[in-house]
Amino acid sequence: MTEDRPGIGTDAYNFAYLDEQTKRMIRRAILKGVAIPGYQVPFASREMPMPYGWGTGGVQVTAACLTPADRLKVIDQGADDTTNAVSIRKFFERTAGVETTEHTTEATVIQTRHRIPETPMTDDQILVYQVPIPEPLRFLEPRETETRKMHGLEEYGLMHVKLYEDIARHGEIATAYAYPVKVEGRYVMDPSPIPKFDNPRLESPALQLFGAGREQRIYAVPPYSKVMSLDFEDHPFNPSKADHPCALCGAENTYLDEVIMDDAGGRMFVCSDTDYCATRQAEGHRGAQSAPFTEAAE
Amino acid sequence: MYVAVKGGERAIDNAHEWLAEERRGDPAVPELSVAQIREQMKLAVNRVMAEGSLYDPDLAALAIKQSRGDLIEAIFLIRAYRTTLPRIGHSEPVDTGAMICDRRVSATFKDAPGGQVLGPTFDYTHRLLDFKLAAEGETPRAQEVEAARKETPRITDFLNRDGLIQKETPSDETPPDMTRAPMEYPANRALRLQALTRGDEGFVLGMAYSTQRGYGRNHPFVGELRIGKVPVEMEIPELGFAVEIGEIDLTECETVNQFAGSKTEPPQFTRGYGLVFGQTERKAISMALVDRSLRWEELGEDNVGAPAQDEEFVLSHSDNIQATGFLEHIKLPHYVDFQSELELVRRMRAEAQASYKDAAE
User: Fold this and answer.
1) Can you tell me the mean pLDDT for A229-245?
2) Which residues in chain B (218-277) have CB-CB distances under 8 A to chain A?
3) pLDDT in tens, B269-318
4) CB–CB contact A83 B11 (8 Å)
5) Alpha-carbon distance A72 to A74, whole Å?
């Protein structure tokens, strides 16, 4: 499959699947998004050969960004080997023939669902997010006509009231993922359903692009933009995570998956970013349950 | 190029192989041909063409075969194919007044010029299983007569002549294209009709039904329902005139709805409109009812808060490809988000339990 590289003209489909007109339309939306950080740009999203909800927005943005020289990494839940990440990576291998990688440091374009890689990104990388509901105000106001007006008028009182009510009721803000941020002091933005642990890394040297296919929206966080997670002075934002080290690589500062091990409810905590974890293990870092040096490490 | 083969990749390949085998079913039973589906599952083909927004019975039949008869999956295949096709131009508006009708009924008049033509309808069949079909015998040919006339006048034109029905203002404005521009609200009527004609049959039916049961009641009569062939013409720039490029089957429904009048308009009838590819009359009638319901503002009616009056609600949820995609995506892994919820709930429970304890002491 990877032998025949269906570039332009060698197959029924154009390079990276989309026709050039469509890519141009998407690039215009991306440029507008970059010019107005955090603003949701409507774009004429196309039906893709994978279902809405599987990352059609991200796939369209990636397709519009890819050049034959790019090296693509695709992750879902932080992992390269989850089924949908495999499926999207295969899609671009087939339709664009670009090189792919699992190493964050080697990739020029990374498409992600629900995580930001642990390895710091650089200014020659693009991070493309798959977004289900781009509108941070949607669950407070279901009408698009209203939410657009609210963004236009910078009317975010409703959001602050919601966060305040959370604190009044639960003692803290009860949003654990898709935690709303304000970009460059203007637009309130949904960072896609990443855990709030990842929010501080939204301030990045890399270009971050967000694609929502079904909802027909693209938005962007340009490199080095100021991204502030919404909070209150007396209740500052807290990017929490499970209070464990990784059982495989021993990392103390990464986002962890909780894996149920046996019928008795035994569990272990491991890095959700598989590349980061594997790289650390290759460097000799060991966690409490990593084979074969389990006992040696303890 | 090296790509590590992981469990996910192998699982996907295996799943696809198994799926192909399941699609075929028992190899001892002869395989269905695309032509058989096209000819004998015609109403399924029509639905796939209508909601896939692509008039091609052969491709629709192929999609049904490939999707194992899951029509929404077939519609998805057609949509994904359609979106890759180059847009070389657009046709002239079709003239449904010149339709060669297979079926044409009006509920508002006992008889009318052009007559009531039942055509191939289930309407008066008794829904008894026909076990003869299981024996796979040949069906005798139906009787044929010469068509009475070429063109069938529109029922609503008779009403219009007396000024009893609200006039539609003709417009040469280019309608928006929802497949090439993002949806914007408020949508004009052309855009609403586009969304409805490709909308999910079940959803549009449910919306229409809700208006009949009182959620924004607007008293519809089927003024006319016609099904038949119309020629499609396209202007070729090199020629400078329109030439016929083919024929398509269409179902058109015009409803006549009561209207008590408003501050500016005397009482008169109003219209709802449905137009759908193929013989798809349930959908066309539903579409007309929902269209009429969405026109409350233009006609100066009250918004009673009925779902079918709410354009954003109806149009944002009518597309079954969007709906099924978003609905089914929740079976994809979400463990990262779930993990953060898990920690939040654990933390909040611990705090709550601590405060109960404090209160008890």
Assistant:
1) 91
2) none
3) 999 999 999 999 999 999 999 999 999 998 888 899 999 999 999 999 99
4) yes
5) 7
